Amino acid sequence: MARKARTHYAILGLICWKPMSGYDIKKMVEVGLRYFWSESYGQIFPTLNRLVDDGLATKKVDPESGGRRRQVYTATRSGRKRFEAWLRQPTDLPRLRDELKLKFFLTSRSETDEGVRLLEEYRTQQLEHLAMLKESEVIFATALQGAGMPEELDQLMKTLDWSDSDMTDEQSHEILVFYLTLRSGILVAEARVAWVEEVLPILQAGKLPETL
Amino acid sequence: MARKARTHYAILGLICWKPMSGYDIKKMVEVGLRYFWSESYGQIFPTLNRLVDDGLATKKVDPESGGRRRQVYTATRSGRKRFEAWLRQPTDLPRLRDELKLKFFLTSRSETDEGVRLLEEYRTQQLEHLAMLKESEVIFATALQGAGMPEELDQLMKTLDWSDSDMTDEQSHEILVFYLTLRSGILVAEARVAWVEEVLPILQAGKLPETL
DNA sequence: TCAGACATGTAAGTCGTTACATGATTCA
DNA sequence: TGAATCATGTAACGACTTACATGTCTGA
Fold first, then answer.
1. Do strands B57-61 and B71-75 pair parallel, antiparallel, or not at all (unpaired)?
2. Do B106 and A37 touch (CB under 8 A)?
3. Which positions ≥6 away from A196 have C-beta within 8 Å?
4. Distance from A26 to chain B by nearest Cα, in Å?
């Protein structure tokens, strides 16, 4: 397998988690993992077939499927081993390429106004993102507090192949993990907003406050 | 130019900021921008020549250079215009692909211990990163408070072609901008550590605290 | 019957890193 | 003289997205 092969392991991990088709994987990523991961069809299908070639997964046609025949992929024993070995390997920090900070830096020889404008754009963007995350947070928290299963989780439930009437401990644990990863997105977005609040007055004053 | 062409604009922006060679750009990125950007030689040199082909930059040999002849690139008028237009375009959110959160999610059907281990690894990693950032913070703050120019800034000073005896207002403004982008890295790293502190006890308890 | 959802896939191109090749100068 | 550093560049690969092509079933 290739150098980092993050996509390979992401997909291998998902089919270890639960046998799935390429389409299921895409749904799963869009509904549940979108706060910290993305995959496109152009990666998913070639990768799945590559996993089969490498003996890490098997493919079989789902006999129950209506529509075009679903190809369901399942991790083999050696696939699981490979996945578990990857889990234990040290994890790189996410790649840093923050376009807005680059723009901000590059305006340092222009008018201060330009930097202020960029910071305000950043704040607006992050606040919108935050609002979206907080909506999801409420949905997950409702489910976790046993106060019913919000409609918005239905699609996720279906992808996970759960019946909506009975929530087992394991399912509730999985919803908890969704919630926890979501919290991380919220804390980071809040930190970015806090950064703007800290930095705007300094930039406008042109210097650090005396009280540092 | 290509779809997003972040690298093109990053490099164009740097030579608008100040005429530089490919080698200077690499240094600049490593010393000053590394908290939010990266570029490799494999991108820098082809991109610089592409900018010349497109009429956005000019190349000339630096007559004063010892060693192998330096090729110094300068933005043309149309290069500057292009760069300024890019600055005003809406900025995408950074791409999300956080490998550790993926691992954390994928362990949700394994033993809780595995998730705990990953969170602790994340905390350690972030704390190390934070310590490094805070060292740099002290260095920049010292310079900004006029308490002398720390040795560690020498390389940066040289890349920016400043003599170390006189710090003009403009130079001090640029150091301020370095400092402000650094603060952003610090706030985000702190938020990630806070996330671990929040999440570890919840994961170990297996449920949200009653007091939510 | 036909729009829309489900489902799988490919081609082309963009984006980015790593490893390597090369050459000149400085200084111990 | 020869190691370190400054400096430029390419080839090969790997990572990822977008747009497109295709096919099947369901239900209005």
1. antiparallel
2. no
3. A119, A120, A122, A123, A126
4. 15
Provide, for chain A, the percentages of residues in helix, strand and coil under a 3-state DSSP scheme, each rounded to the nearest 5.
Answer: 65, 5, 30
Q: Which residues contact B154 (CB under 8 A, 6 or more apart)?
A: B164
pTM: 0.90
* Helix segments in A4-153, DSSP class H: 6-17, 22-28, 41-53, 77-88, 99-106, 112-144
Q: How far is CA B127 from the centre of its chain?
A: 18
- Rg over CA atoms, chain A: 22
Backbone angles phi, psi at B20, to 5 degrees: -150, 160
B2 burial class (0-12, 13-18, 19+ CB within 10 angstroms)?
exposed
Q: How far is CA B196 from the centre of its chain?
A: 24
Cross-chain Cβ contact A188/B190 below 8 Å: no
Handedness of CA A192, A198, A204, A210 (dihedral sign): negative
Task: For residue B93, give the DSSP letter.
Answer: P
For residue B185 the two structure tokens come to 């890295």
Q: Under a CB-based contact definition with an 8 Å cutoff, are residues B164 and B149 in contact?
A: yes
Give the CA-to-C1' distance from B75 to D8 in angstroms. Answer: 19
Q: pLDDT tens for chain A, 212 residues: list them.
A: 777 899 999 999 999 988 999 999 999 998 889 889 999 999 999 999 999 999 999 999 887 766 678 899 999 999 999 999 999 999 988 877 899 999 999 998 777 788 999 999 999 999 999 999 999 899 888 888 876 666 666 666 666 666 555 567 777 888 888 899 999 999 999 999 999 999 999 988 877 776 55
Rounded to whole angstroms, how far apart are CA atoms A165 and A146?
12
Interface of A with B in 114-133 (CB under 8 A): 114-115, 118, 121-122, 125, 129
DSSP B20: B
